[in-house]
Write a structure and sequence with these properties.
Blueprint: E1 3-9, E2 13-20, E3 27-30, H1 34-47, E4 50-57, H2 64-82, E5 91-98, E6 101-108, E7 114-118, E8 125-126, E9 130-131, H3 134-146, E10 149-156, H4 160-179
Parallel strand pairs: 3-4, 7-10
Antiparallel strand pairs: 1-2, 2-4, 5-6, 6-10, 8-9
Helix pairs in contact: 1-4, 2-3
This protein binds manganese (II) ion.
Manganese (II) ion binds at residues 38, 161, 165.
Length: 197
């Protein structure tokens, strides 16, 4: 069973999480930011991961520290769960429609952390707390901590909630595909270099 527990505490956030990557989409997520809870629930459900996550962060400042630190803790949990990356498919992609929005997501568990996020989100905030510029921050921090290349490119979309929702659902699907075990080569590290980490 591939899983990990991460506890991360700073002066800005306290995060506790338990992740099972070969799960069924079960979740208890409490971040104190309603929209972020909603996005993480979609991500977990569509990737079929199991996640218990609580974050007690300084949301009286804004949503920045909570969003970024959750991405760090989640990226770390996926990294630890995958160990030396043996047997994984490595690549995953999803072109995800959400009503009028359409977002292409592509993931490579490459060992090199970078995110290319090209979104045109019309509103600055979703809900009372969530700044839409935090979407890019989330994926940069996640990519860096996991050691993955993540592309998110918006093809269409006018509604901010739909666009961001397409990102998190699509990323869940693409990541789920990338970390699935390749039944043809369950013991191989999928790199000509012989190592990914
Ligand atoms: Mn929604």
């Amino acid at each position: 069973m591939r899983k990990a527990e991460v506890i991360r505490q700073t002066s800005e956030t306290k995060i506790q999480l338990a992740l099972t990557i070969d799960g069924t989409g079960q979740q208890t997520i409490k971040t104190k930011i309603g929209f972020l809870d909603h996005m993480l629930e979609l991500f977990v459900r569509h990737g079929r991961f199991d996640l218990a996550l609580t974050c007690d962060g300084d949301v009286e400042v804004d949503a920045h520290h909570t969003t970024e630190d959750i991405a760090i803790a989640l990226g770390r949990a996926f990294s630890e769960s995958l160990g030396e990356r043996r047997g994984i498919i490595r690549y995953g992609s999803m072109l995800l429609p959400m009503d009028e929005a359409l977002v292409m997501t592509s993931v490579d568990i490459s060992g090199r952390g970078m995110a290319v996020v090209e979104l045109d989100i019309p509103s600055e905030k979703i809900g009372q707390q969530f700044d839409t510029e935090l979407v890019e921050e989330f994926f940069i921090a996640f990519a860096r901590e996991l050691g993955a290349t993540i592309h998110l490119h918006q093809i269409a979309g006018k509604n901010s909630h739909h666009i961001v929702e397409a990102c998190f659902k699509g990323f869940g699907r693409a990541l789920g595909e990338a970390i699935a075990v390749n039944q043809q080569a369950p013991d191989e590290i999928p790199s000509t270099k012989g190592t990914i980490k």
